[in-house]
Amino acid sequence: MTSWMHGSFPGHEVNIVFSRGLSPDALTTGLRELRREPLAHGEANGWAWAVHDMLNDEIEDYDGVDYRQVCPQGTELVVFVTEPCSAKAHGPDFDYYRDGRLVLGFSFEDIGQRVGENPDHLSAELLAAGLIGPGAYCEAADTDDGHDCFDHHYDDEDRLVRAIADAFGLPSPPLAREVVRERGAPIAPGTFVTYAKGLDLPTLTTVLAEAGYPARTRGESAGWSWATHDAADLPGRGTAVADLARDITGFRYEERFGGPGRVETVFLATTPACECPHGQNYMVPHCPDHPFQFLHCRGGFERSYFNVGRRRESRRSGDLLLRELLDAGIVGRHTPAYDADPGFNADGAVTMRIVMDRFGLPAPS
Question: What pTM, to 2 d.p., does this model score?
Answer without folding.
Answer: 0.53
